[in-house]
Amino acid sequence: MKTHQAVEATAQIVEHTPEANLRMRLGSTSVKGLLADFGDSVHLGKINGKYVLLIESDIIEFDKGVSPIEFHGPDDLMEIVEKISRKV
Hints:
By secondary structure, this protein is an alpha+beta fold. The chain is built from 2 helices and 4 strands, in the order H-E-E-E-E-H. It has a two-stranded antiparallel sheet with strand order 1-2.
């Protein structure tokens, strides 16, 4: 199924159930959100045969004291895409 087809099918579900959930696992990472966000702020793609999930947001929140990632200054997205693309 192509992305536009998945977005259209998602829109039909969301029309009847606006709060429908989106739940998936990528490896050991679980993601929860609203199905309505798929194709808008939640994007699923593939690079070198591996799945990549991209989530857009104006903010990010961490549970305090849980991880040093909360102090991380994010890399430029294109640098990350290039790094993933170089993996064999």
